[in-house]
Write a structure and sequence with these properties.
18 strands; alpha/beta; Rossmann fold; AB_hydrolase_fold
Length: about 525
C-alpha cells in the first residue's frame, strides 16, 4: 500500500497509529437568515436539524486488514511537495505493483488535527441584495486563494468540508449566488399590496415577488448566469471584508472550483476574466444553463419572449410557480433528489437536507426560483467558454463522480476532448456532488493540483508522482483509501492524461470495474 499525506502531521505517525473508532459530533451550526435593521444584522427563521436523513447503509467499506509496515510507501506532504520516506519504509516495494493509496481523512480531531474555523459573513452588493459567503484560513498570508461556487439549490454550506480542511493551509472562500442559499433578498421585490395596507398573506412563505408591480430596485433584477459571474468578479476585485479593523480582500487571481451550476459559472467567469483566474476545477459541471435566448447574443429571437425572469412575475407564471414550488419544496421531494445524486447512501446528508429546507422556507425563495428558471442564457455557451479558457491558457482540471445520474460520464469525456491537456479524474463510486460525498478524495486531488500549478509543474499531478513523464499521458486507475468515523472506505479513481487513446480508456474502465467488484466482494465477507 502507498500512503500519501498532505497534512501537517507526518505520515509516519499515521502509519504507526492504530485507527480508533471516533464518535463524530454532527451538531452543525444553526443557520439563520439575517434581517437588516439600521444596517445591523439580526437572525431569524431557524430550522431544527433533521437527524433521520442517513440513508440505508450500502457503502463499500473495506474491513481493516493486518499489514506489515514495509508494505507501505510513505509520502509526507509539505509546502514544497512530496518528500519520500526512508529506505527501510519502502524497501522491497514494487513501484508498478503499488496501486493502493491511503489519503488523509478529514480533520476531525481524532489524530490531533482540527479543521480551520469557518466565518459566516454578509455584504450588501446592490440595494436590497445581500450576498452571503463563508471563509476560512484568511490568516494564511501568502497562500493561494481558493473560491468555491455552489450548485443549484444549495449554498456555501455545501463546501463546509473543504473550508475546514483546505482552510488549514489556503485562503478559502465560498459564495452563495444571489437568489439562492442565504443570498436571498431581504425585502419583497414585488409586494402584493402597497405599503401601509393590510396584507393578509404577509406571513406566507411564497408571497414575496408575486405582486403586480416591482419595486424600483428590482425592476431589472434577473437571477441569471450573467448576474452571478458579475457577482463573482466584484467579490474578487473590489469587495473589502473589514474584520476587527483589518481589511481582508482578495484582489488577486484565484483558483476557482465549481460543482454543477457552480462549475458552469466558474468556467463562464474564467472565460470572461482570465486575468483573475489561476485555474478552474470542474466538479460534475452542468454543460448548459438557461432555456431562453440571450438578448445580447440573439436580440431578435429574445424579443419573441416577452418575459425573461424579471420582476414582477406574470400572472400565468405566478400560478405555475406556486404549483411547481409546492411539489419541489416538499421535504419528501428533497430527500428523493438527495437519494438520487449521492451514490453512496451511507453518506450523512443531515446538514445538507436541513439547510435546503431552510432556504425553501424563506418568503423570497419561490419567486427567486421562477426568475432563475426563466432567466436567459449566458452570453457565451459552455463550449465557447472552454475554447476561450484554452486560448488564454487558463488551466482546467476535471473531477467527476462516475455515478452521477444527471451529468453522466459522457459529459466529462466531451470536456476532455475539447481540452485534452486538462487532467481528468473520474471517481467511483461517487455521484453528482463528489466534494460532499468523497471530500477526502476531492481535497487530496485539489491540494495536489494546486501545488502542481504553484510549482509551475515541477511537482507531479496527483497520482502521477511515481510515473515517468512518458506515462503521464496514459490512463491509470488507482484505489484510494481513507478513514471516516473509524471505518476504512475506498473508491477507484481513474486518471486520463493529455493523450488518451480509446484502447487506454477501455482497458482502464475494465480494470477499475474489476477492482471495484473486488472491493464490493471484500465488504460482503
Amino acid at each position: 500500500m502507498e500512503v500519501l499525506c498532505y497534512g501537517s502531521t507526518p505520515c509516519c505517525q499515521v502509519v504507526q497509529t492504530k485507527w480508533k473508532l471516533v464518535e463524530k459530533n454532527f451538531n452543525s451550526r444553526q443557520s439563520r437568515f439575517p434581517s437588516f435593521v439600521n444596517h445591523g444584522i439580526s437572525c431569524s427563521n431557524t430550522v431544527p436539524r433533521i437527524d433521520s436523513m442517513r440513508f440505508h447503509d450500502r457503502s463499500l467499506s473495506v474491513p481493516e486488514e493486518s499489514r506489515r509496515l514495509k508494505s507501505f510507501r510513505v509520502y509526507s506532504g509539505t509546502s514544497d511537495g512530496y518528500v519520500i520516506g526512508s529506505e527501510d519504509e519502502i524497501a522491497g516495494i514494487d513501484e508498478h505493483a503499488a496501486s493502493k493509496i491511503l489519503v488523509p481523512g478529514l480533520p476531525d480531531g481524532s489524530n490531533g488535527e482540527f479543521g480551520a474555523p469557518i466565518s459566516s459573513c454578509f455584504w450588501q452588493w446592490k440595494p436590497k441584495l445581500n450576498v452571503h459567503y463563508e471563509k476560512a484560513g484568511c490568516e494564511n498570508i501568502g497562500s493561494p486563494n481558493v473560491l468555491f461556487l455552489p450548485g443549484f439549490g444549495v449554498g456555501s454550506f455545501h463546501y463546509e468540508k473543504q473550508l475546514k480542511d483546505l482552510g488549514r493551509d489556503n485562503k478559502v472562500w465560498a459564495l452563495d449566488f444571489l437568489g439562492q442559499g442565504m443570498s436571498l433578498a431581504f425585502e419583497d421585490p414585488a409586494p402584493k399590496i402597497k405599503e401601509g395596507e393590510r396584507d393578509m398573506d404577509r406571513d406566507s412563505t411564497s408571497s414575496w415577488g408575486f405582486g403586480e408591480e416591482a419595486e424600483p430596485w428590482a425592476t431589472k433584477l434577473v437571477y441569471s448566469a450573467d448576474l452571478w459571474q458579475d457577482q463573482v468578479r466584484y467579490f474578487i476585485e473590489e469587495w473589502n471584508d473589514c474584520v476587527f479593523g483589518f481589511r481582508q480582500v482578495i484582489r488577486e487571481p484565484v483558483y476557482i472550483v465549481g460543482n454543477s451550476l457552480g462549475g458552469y459559472v466558474a468556467l463562464y467567469f474564467a472565460a470572461r476574466n482570465p486575468h483573475l483566474v489561476k485555474g478552474v476545477t470542474l466538479l460534475n459541471a452542468t454543460p448548459f444553463w438557461g432555456f431562453l435566448p440571450n438578448p445580447i447574443k440573439n436580440p431578435r429571437i429574445a424579443k419573441l419572449f416577452p418575459w425573461a425572469g424579471t420582476f414582477p412575475l406574470p400572472s400565468s407564471i405566478r400560478r405555475f410557480t406556486e404549483l411547481v414550488w409546492e411539489k419541489i419544496s416538499d421535504p419528501a421531494s428533497i430527500a428523493q433528489v438527495l437519494n438520487q445524486v449521492y451514490a453512496d447512501h451511507s453518506t450523512n446528508v443531515d446538514n445538507v437536507f436541513s439547510r435546503i429546507i431552510e432556504t425553501t422556507r424563506h418568503p423570497a425563495a419561490a419567486a427567486s426560483f421562477a426568475s432563475i428558471m426563466f432567466a436567459p442564457q449566458a452570453e457565451i455557451s459552455f463550449a465557447e467558454a472552454l475554447s476561450r479558457c484554452r486560448e488564454n491558457d487558463v488551466p482546467i482540471c476535471l473531477m467527476y463522480g462516475k455515478e452521477d445520474p444527471w451529468v453522466k460520464p459522457i459529459w466529462g469525456v466531451q470536456v476532455k476532448k475539447q481540452v485534452p491537456e486538462a487532467p481528468y479524474y473520474q471517481i467511483s463510486p461517487a455521484g453528482h456532488c463528489p466534494h460532499d460525498e468523497v471530500p477526502e478524495v476531492i481535497n487530496f486531488l485539489l491540494r495536489g493540483w494546486i501545488r502542481h500549478l504553484e510549482s509551475s509543474g515541477s511537482l507531479s499531478l496527483p497520482l502521477l508522482d511515481e510515473l515517468d513523464s512518458k506515462k503521464h499521458t496514459n490512463a491509470i486507475a488507482r484505489e484510494l483509501e481513507y478513514i471516516r468515523e473509524g471505518s476504512k472506505k475506498s473508491v477507484m479513481v481513474r486518471y486520463f492524461g493529455s493523450t488518451v487513446s480509446l484502447w487506454d480508456r477501455l482497458i482502464s474502465y475494465i480494470n477499475s470495474g474489476s477492482k471495484l467488484r473486488n472491493l464490493a466482494a471484500k465488504s460482503q465477507q
